[in-house]
Amino acid sequence: MSPDDRQAHRMPYWADFTPGTGLRRPPRIAPLPSDAARLDLGGAWSFRLSPTARAPLDFLTGPPAHGADAWSPLPVPSHWVLHGHGVPRYTNTAYPFPIDPPHVPDANPTGDHHRTFDLPDGWRIGGSVLRFDGVDSACKVWLNGQELGTSKGSRLPVEFDAAHALRPGRNDLAVRVHRWSSGSYLEDQDMWWLPGIFRDVTLLERPPGGIDDCFVHADYDHVRREGRLGVDTSAPDASLTVPELGIHEHPAGRSLTLPGVEPWSAEQPRLYDAELCTDTERVRLRIGFRTVAIVDGRFTVNGAPVLLRGVNRHEHDPDRGRALDLPTMRRDVELMKAHNINAVRTAHYPPHPAFLDLCDEYGLWVIDECDIETHGFIYADWAGNPIDDPCWRPMLLDRMQRMVERDKNHPSVVIWSLGNESHAGTNLADLATWTRDRDPSRPLHYERDRTYRHSDFYSLMYAPVDDVDRIGRRADPATPENTDHPELEERRRQLPFLLCEYAHAMGNGPGSLEEYQRTLEQHPRCAGAFVWEWIDHGFRRTTEDGREFFAYGGDFGDRPHGGTFCVDGLVHPDRTPSPGLAAYKKAIEPVGITIESADPGRITVRNRHDVRDLSHLRFTWTAEREGLPCAQGELKVPAVAARQCVDVPLPTVDTTGDGEVWLTVRAVLAAVAPWAPAGHEVAWAQARLAGPRHRATAAPSVPATTAAPLLDGPHLDIWRAPADNDRGMGDNSVLREWRSAGLDRLVPRTLAEGPHGAEVRLAPEGFPHGLRMRHEWTEEGDAWRLAVEITPEGPWGERTLPKAGVRFTLPDRFDRIRWYGKGPGEAYPDSEHAVRVGLFTSTVADLQTPYVVPQENGRRADVRWAELTDPATGEGLRVEAADPDHPFGLTVRPWSTEALEAAAHPCDLTPDGRLHLHIDIAQHGLGSASCGPGPLPHHQLHPQHWRFALLLRRPEAPAPGPTSGEATV
Ligand code: IPT
User: Fold this and answer.
1) How many domains does the chain contain in total?
2) Nearest ligand 1 atom to alpha carbon 533
3) Catalytic site residue from 315, 501, 514, 880
4) What is the C-alpha separation between 335 and 341, in angstroms, rounded?
5) Which of 1, 369, 385, 876 is the most exposed place for a label (fewest CB within 10 A)?
6) Same domain, 727 and 825
7) DSSP letter assigned to residue 126
């Protein structure tokens, strides 16, 4: 069907190929803070929901009196589905409507919005503009009954000429919003479908001779150390003032060379306040000087190679959806900065413009991504993909133009991305050509056209560490899509590499962040990587009996749905950091500290910043003996330049005496930063200087009654409540292997049993493989010694185990925990680098990580000893590794593994009156197989012959004096 034929079907505007109609203004629309009047039209509107797009147009000058009961108040900005009108729907890749482009079903929930407003006295009506910063997914707008036009492109601004309809005094504004439109075919990002006017609505006064648009060009020449400044503006006689640079009323169009300006970078986000003026309007600008270039296959800014340590960020709030307020955006930026993140990919659409202001101000490198994803065409084998159909060209180009025009003045935006997961197609060429022409200063990114002809980066998602290494060494295999195009293949090989998504942060995990980061750092070709993703998209809901939880796909009765796949962030829906964020912070810390403790000893400090030296950091050290501080001091570290390193001497610590001595070196902020107080920890490292303590075996003195708190155990413990990353995806599911090997249903056969021990064979029905566990209790001084031996039997082949250990139960009153081992947070074999050795205290409740989808969590690693105490009586149980060189993993829960596995939301879990104590000697890693590779081979757990012993005794009286820094979890 040709475009003409298809247009001839006389499609209604919401289902046609136009990006918008009517008095929609050309997409220049940079949001310029100006002294011209503006009227915020957010607030209380009237709202009515209809099941189809064809409800009567009876509300243009206000809700009709006769049907007033269909109307109710609705705040704007908002999504109506979060205010009781219909439900949010979550799909991952599937369109929630038939693939029948560009049409949408008759059942197209349509929200009519109306408000009145009073035009302020003195408002100059001529030239007035009505601006919407985001309407999902298509709208038609009337002012005082006159149609202004229509628009699509949910996450992009649109402006309408409003002067002819605007009048002094009272005005009626009516907006009809359709949930589904042809535009929805371009908006199949893996997220909730949330209709509504979800960003600001503003009436703008436009002074004649004002500044409608400008494009600031602020380059930095790192060789000459000078800036170049020029401003293209729609007002030819505009003048520019930058007080700090001594520029006063300079003709804006005439470019300037500025020796000695300080460049902008994410590490040092130097902004210069400026003003652009005409006789009638004054516009405020914040200028950052920087030049982005790809030099010899490396991504550079101001001449320095840059490694992006990023996250993919969707806009999400557990109550407001994508209608984010400014404090929430600021919180995101501050959390990112405080966790060493230096880059954001705005997955998969341009964010609220204020977010980019914050990125300029706080310093984050941004890949600004266009509001384009056609992922659902995967279910049509990409037949009809809009990216490859000329009918869609205007709508696609319109989106790219609106993004570039809106965001072009942000120094933080260093890369434009054409969109996400939309396969390849001819329209991409138009987007790329237009963008390169309009803004030659920024490189382009697009991942899914495997020829990379329209991308300045070779980019992949979820590549395993080995592949990244191979790519880094430029030893990656040829791309099949380029087989017939050697010149494209040659070009691809020269491109810097981006891992635009990796480390799927779904539930517990991701694992292997450390390995990824060290690999990325090793190879100049690697420009960086972006964790998928920043935040769990869960909505706060309450059960009928008042228990709060975060809802995911299907919880609203939405069908079809993508289930829990939207819950895959480094922060929980309420922005509580998950352990994965701590792990990421550690992996990407911008200072690498290595402690060589063997005599004479030294500390190597590697500055991993790309731009700044270390003068903004202070280095401190602490020595702890068995978790108790025994010495501390400052470390003199010179102001090492970016990407350089230095050795400094190891401080002298008295290590004579009993027990383990650990040295911790920390790099902290010397002064307050906009995102953290002075003293905020940026990086750290630890090394053992002495120990461990081996207790002398005493003769029995106190009757060994200390195992009395145990209600039950030891039992063999190999199962864990599957983590999302155990469930994996498709065939890549270790859970499926574990289940098919029967590991979740072992049947015991007792071989021997006595008062001091037993030997049991546990094996799944129908299989010859199994595990034999022998345990024996003996008295040892004032303790009971429990010796355990686990032996695999039969053909295990390549099979892995979730974990190996023992479990017990205790009365729930022993719920105060103190341990010496790694903490304060949870840790698994491939997410262990973020925790440190110390003495920690917690309650059982606080040991749990309330993942939105309940799963394995809460393990503390490398525990030498732990005490579970009844706070009322001081009674309890101390469990020690008999050999402190072989510490254990500790998990204590108020519910069983089975209950944890069965729960759909954390609020389903209720303490069962016992404490479930799990002690493991080994665990399988986490990996990120929920979308990507599983754990690396050395983090996989294969059955082997294990022997270990525990000592159980009464808790010791807590030692006097302060405990280590993070002693309380
Ligand atoms: C990739 C998508 O780009 C992203 O939006 C999200 O869905 C992520 O996966 C998984 O959570 S696409 C995937 C098929 C590699």
Assistant:
1) 5
2) 11
3) 501
4) 9
5) 1
6) yes
7) T
For 8-28, how does the pLDDT look when each residue is reduced to its tens digit (9 = 90+)? 557 899 999 999 999 888 766
Are residues 546 and 407 part of one domain? yes
Domain annotation covers residue 606: yes
Does ligand 1 come within 6 angstroms of the Cβ of 724? Answer: no
Looking up residue 887, the CATH number of its domain turns out to be 2.70.98.10
- List, for residues 484-536, the tens digit of each pLDDT value: 999 999 999 999 999 999 999 999 999 999 999 999 999 999 999 999 999 99
DSSP state of 183: G
pLDDT, tens only, 420-439: 999 999 999 999 999 999 99
pLDDT band at 956 (very low <50, low <70, confident <90, very high): confident
CA of residue 86 to ligand 1 center, whole Å: 27
272 contacts 279 by C-beta, under 8 angstroms: no
Are 580 and 675 in a shared domain?
no
Residues 397 and 513 in one domain: yes
The owner of tokens 């899914």 is 448
Q: How confident is the model at residue 599 (pLDDT cuts 50, 70, 90)?
A: confident
Q: How far is the CA of 530 from the centre of ligand 1 (A)?
A: 12
Give the residue from 539, 572, 574 showing the smallest Cα distance to 87.
539
User: Roughly how many angstroms between the first and final C-alpha of the chain, as a whole number?
Assistant: 64
Q: Which atom of ligand 1 sits closest to the CA of residue 931?
A: 10
Token duo for residue 15: 């289902």
pLDDT at residue 209 tops 70 = yes
Helix (H) or strand (E) holding 788: strand 783-793
Taking the C-alpha atoms of residue 643 and residue 633, their distance in angstroms, rounded to an integer, is: 26
What was the pLDDT predicted at 335? 98
Read off the pLDDT of residues 794-822 as tens digits, 9 standing for 90 and up. Answer: 999 999 999 999 999 999 999 999 999 99
Question: What was the pLDDT predicted at 564?
Answer: 97
CA distance 817 to 809: 15
447 labelled catalytic: no
CA–centroid distance, 403 to ligand 1, in Å, is 22
Domain at 645, CATH number: 2.60.40.10
| pLDDT level of residue 700 (50, 70, 90 thresholds) | very low
Residue 432 makes CB contacts below 8 A (sequence gap 6+) with 418, 444, 446, 454
* Identity of the amino acid at 148: L
Mean pLDDT, rounded, for 131-155: 98
pLDDT value at position 600? 85
pLDDT at 702: 45
Q: What was the pLDDT predicted at 68? A: 87
Which is the closest atom of ligand 1 to the Cα of 421?
A: 3
DSSP E strands in 53-199: the ranges are 72-76, 89-91, 107-119, 129-132, 135-136, 138-143, 146-152, 158-161, 169-178, 191-193, 196-197
CB-based contacts of 107, cutoff 8 Å, min separation 6 = 51, 52
Q: Does the structure show a pLDDT above 50 at 752?
A: yes
Beta strands (DSSP E) in 650-781 are: 661-669, 681-690, 712-717, 746-754, 757-764, 770-780
956 is catalytic: no
289 and 301 Cβ atoms separated by less than 8 Å: no
Judged by average pLDDT, the poorest of 479-493, 686-700, 751-765 is: 686-700
For ligand 1, say whether the CB of 235 is within 6 Å of any of its atoms. Answer: no
Does the beta carbon of 532 lie inside 6 Å of ligand 1? yes
CA 190 / ligand 1 centre spacing (Å): 7
Q: List the residue whose alpha carbon is closest to atom 9 of ligand 1.
A: 931
Query: Residue 874: phi, psi to the nearest 5?
Result: 80, -5
pLDDT of residue 66: 87
Domain hosting residue 229, numbered range: 214-292
Place of tokens 């269909």: 70
What angle, 0 to 180 degrees and rounded to 10, lies between the N-to-C axes of helices 393-407 and 353-362? 40
Long-range contacts of 909-916 (CB under 8 A, 24+ apart): 909/854, 911/812, 913/811, 913/812, 914/711, 914/809, 914/810, 914/811, 914/812, 915/809, 915/810, 915/811, 915/812, 915/814, 915/815, 915/844, 915/868, 916/807, 916/808, 916/809, 916/891, 916/892
